[in-house]
Amino acid sequence: RIHLMAGRVPLGADRAAVAGEMETTFIENLRYAADLLAQEGMIGLVEPINSHITDPRYFLNTPHQAAAILEKVGRPNLKLQLDLFHCQIMDGNLSGNLEKYFPLIGHIQIAQVPGRHEPDSPGELNYNYIFELLESLGYSGYVGCEYAPKGDTVEGLGWLRSYWESRGLQHGGTSKAAE
């Protein structure tokens, strides 16, 4: 799986004025990349990145826009990389968006909102609920941790051990019953 970036609105350009041309170019580039990736059995991912905090000039900013572009591209080996941090900032409605776009999702990334720290840090998102929702939807892919740990990396993964324990799992995600 490889993230195919959408590009940025040129400095000084009006987003609305260049949106059509940028979308056309992005679609052509995605088709070209998808065809090359298909030869290698690879999946291309498009990720909406919020324009409110992270990158005001990034062209692709909502899951709705990404889904529309994926439909226009029409390649089965292109999927949505849904970063829940960006999705929450741009649109909220994470449960609805996860359910609506689930067939398009090829990768999930997480971080707490607003601080972009560990999932169990204070913030807007209830990751225990989100993980249970992903499980109920049948998500079996990876979940990328794209956050800035408040401390060191190992300390920053403490939430995962706590989550596993709350689910009756041991360190590493194996069932205690499997022993």
UniProtKB/TrEMBL annotation:
Coiled-coil features, chain-numbered ranges: none
SUPFAM superfamilies, sorted: Xylose isomerase-like
Alphabetical list of Gene3D superfamilies matching this protein: Divalent-metal-dependent TIM barrel enzymes (3.20.20.150)
InterPro entries tied to this protein: Sugar_Epim/Isomerase, Xyl_isomerase-like_sf, Xyl_isomerase-like_TIM-brl
GO terms of biological process kind: glyoxylate metabolic process
Domain Xylose isomerase-like TIM barrel stretches: 2-162
Annotated GO MF terms: hydroxypyruvate isomerase activity
Transmembrane segments: none
Keyword annotations of the record: Isomerase
Protein's name in the database: HYI isomerase
Native source species: Ceuthmochares aereus
Record lineage: Eukaryota, Metazoa, Chordata, Craniata, Vertebrata
